[in-house]
Amino acid sequence: MANTNVLNVTTKKSEKVNTGIEKDVREQIAKHLSVILADTYLLVIKSHLYHWNVVGPLFKSIHDLTEEHYEDMFSAADDIAERIRALGHRAPVNAAEISMDLKIVTPQNGMPNAHSMVEDLVKSHERIAAEMRDMAEYAGDNADVVTEDMLTARIAFHEKAAWMLRALIAE
Length: 171
Fold this sequence. Notes:
Layout: H1 23-53, H2 59-86, H3 114-141, H4 145-169
Helix pairs in contact: 1-2, 1-3, 2-4, 3-4
């Protein structure tokens, strides 16, 4: 059997792309999308942890809603990573590769009660929506309507998720 290098190909950190978006703009968008991707994954993990561990009278509502949310966000993470690649950059390999100012954190002091879980998820969805809003505006101002459109859809998801979660604990 012939020795080939098919499996020895590595992904470059960046590639030459000519889609009408300036190189430095693509680099900035890819860098910020990498942070959004990491925050999205952290929110998937947090939603999953809460999904598994919620108890109490709102168990079924929170359990079902968090499942809906983490499934949507898991799929969205793929879209975000693929957008980074389409911009000519490698999706992040590790947090040390780029400076990541992450907004989403997972539970630090044990598992909170159901009410605190929902409050935490509301804050997380609002934070990531605000983060995406800034990036969507930058993308739109710099002729990257594809990223702007993708982020606009993600903002709508996160704002709706926050609203639905707030409604669960409204008095």
